[in-house]
Amino acid sequence: MKLLLVEDNPLDARLLREILKDTPHASCQLEHVTRLDMALEGLRQQAFDLVLLDLGLPDSQGAESVRRINQAFPALPIIVLTGLANPEVALEAVQTGAQDYLVKGHFNAELLSRTIRYSIERKRASEELRQLNAVLERRVEERTTEFSESEERLALAIAGTHLGMFDLTLATGEAVATNQHLRLLGLRPPTSTAPVTSTALSQAHHYRQWAERVHPEDLPRLTAERNRCMAAHLPYETEYRVVWPDGSVHWLGMRAMFQYDARDQPQRLLGVCMDITERKRTEELLRFLGQRSVTGDGTDFFQALARYLANCLPMDFVCIDLLEEGHQTARTLAMFDQGQFQDNISYTLKDTPCGNVVGKIICCFPQDVRRLFPHDAVLQRMAAESYLGVTLWSSQCQPIGLIAVIGRQPLTDTRNAESIMHLVAVRAAVEIERMLAEQTLRQSRESALNLMQDAIIARQQAEVAKEELRTLNEELESRVLERTALLKDTVVALELEIFTRQRLEREILEISEREQCRLGQDLHDGLGQELAGTAMLGEVLAKKLQAESHPTAEAADKLTTYIRNTIESTRRIAKGLYPVDLTHCGLLVALKDLANQTTQRSGIHCELQGNDDLPQLDQAVEIHIYRIVQEAIGNAIKHGKPRKILIGSRAENGSHLFSVTDDGVGFVKSAGATGMGLHLMHYRARVIGARISIERPEQGGCQVICLLGG
């Protein structure tokens, strides 16, 4: 703390320093000046917490010194130091703006310390009040022209938040308040032309009226809290209950400030009140839901919840239902009617307000529910007037139940009631799911016990069956041994038959191959040579006839041409039966020649594609591969109607793949599955250890693949 002493008498200044050493402020910094202008200059250069001011200075006298400091530094507290001869001047200085005064030579350390502390606090409070007043005055000036509109907006806002204001005079107990404040207390405001939502503190009442409305259990606590806050200069914040004339209990939250006079005595209590009944009910509901312990099948929870809702809302009838399959009927889990629990029942939802709830978040009929559902006998019997229902949703967002409350009076506070129902619906849905899970678990346990019993019976039966099976096995083994001996003889005979058949097939194939070669050679060497000689004679004859201009010369020339064509056909047939290139030039040359012959003979483009890295193969293997490719080309021309045929040859993963691919209509399995050509292709592949596969490429057509060595 930093103090400024303005004193022209050195002895008085020294005395004050000595007294200050005996106070709790002994460690504070004290600056001493002897003139008022020096004090003002020092205050401009640095900040001080308090000024100790002598009224008799060389350059200023009396209250004028206080006025000048106050003008320059209005927030700075001042304690006037005066002699016995001029107490009136000291009082005038206090009225001018000083916080207190001390008579020189008549104060001790305790009085000085208290005076400093109280002066600083009073100045702080006074400055806060002054600033508030300044702000208020400024705002009043700015808003004067808009006062009526602003008051209406404020009134609407206060009405929306249930906020009331009051001003209580502590000495007399008399108070003024807004209409809304009196409504919160349950007091009828006096007859007035002011609107109900007016913010004016225009309604007079007495402290006794407030005390009569406070719940008897809360009044002693409120009195004690008020006295404590008033003595400690603390804001008065509390929550309490009031009882309205109709017996209903409402919660109010209050925040107020005490106003003190110059002697630090409390004079007034100014504050606001808000209706917090809904929040309190919500807190109570959350405590209820959090503290309930559920045992058994959950009945205790549902009955407790039904009783709580009947008392909290309040309503005459409460039921908590479990929706049955199809959501057409419901079974009650708890049914509370006029203070008593009824037996649980199942009922149809059709033509009832509960049927209107299912699938919706909430459904409310504040009044006339009997008229809206005339076919609901329960509503008619109860003389029901209001209804509120909420759907209970499972964790998979499916409706599993509902809660319904029914009253014989219209439901006024629907917002609060719906809020409560939303909160309890979540917990109730969890409890229903838990209850259903426990029921499923019990059923599973019962099923498990039944399965165990069945398993024991089955085990016993299995033992009997096992013994019977052992006997049958012995008989079967005996018969199997007998049949095995017969089967072995049959297998040996069958293997011999298969071997003989395979040998004969190979021999037939070899004989066929030799015969084809012989026929090819005979055609080439015999018939071919004879036809060649005939062609030469025909040419000689044609030339002779032409020289003689014989009329048959042209026919002789045509005959020679036909013979040449026949020779060429004979050579092609001979080469097909006996591919000389295969014997002398190798498989790839023979396949290339086969492609050229196919193109010339059929007019369909055929070519060989592949590399020349074909390993050396046995001649018999090469002949079989050549025949497979030849047969595949023949099938493609005959059945596929292609425009192009490709013969492929390539190495693949240590094997060699030969393929014939066409772009025709494709391979029809039923058409060629039983053909002799396809059978021979597979047989030839088996003889040389190859595999034949027929595929349909994505672009269409047919592809025959022979994989050798895979």
Protein model, in words:
The radius of gyration is 60 Å and the shape is elongated. Helix 3 (63-72) runs parallel beside helix 4, helix 10 (277-291) crosses helix 15 (414-547) and helix 19 packs antiparallel against helix 21. 54% of the residues lie in helices and 21% in strands. The chain starts with a strand and ends with a strand. It is built from 21 helices and 25 strands. The strands form five sheets. Strands 14, 15, 16, 17, 18, 19 and 20 form a seven-stranded antiparallel β-sheet that branches. A six-stranded antiparallel β-sheet has the order 10-9-8-13-12-11, with helices on both faces. Strands 2-1-3-6-7 form a five-stranded parallel β-sheet. The protein has four domains: 2-141, Response regulator (Rossmann fold), CATH 3.40.50.2300; 161-275, PAS domain (Beta-Lactamase); 281-436, Beta-Lactamase (2-Layer Sandwich); 587-708, Histidine kinase-like ATPase, C-terminal domain (Heat Shock Protein 90, 2-Layer Sandwich). With 710 residues, it is an alpha+beta fold. Mean pLDDT is 83; it is low at 189-197 and 293-298. Helix 1 (10-21) links the parallel strand 1 (2-6) and strand 2 (29-33).
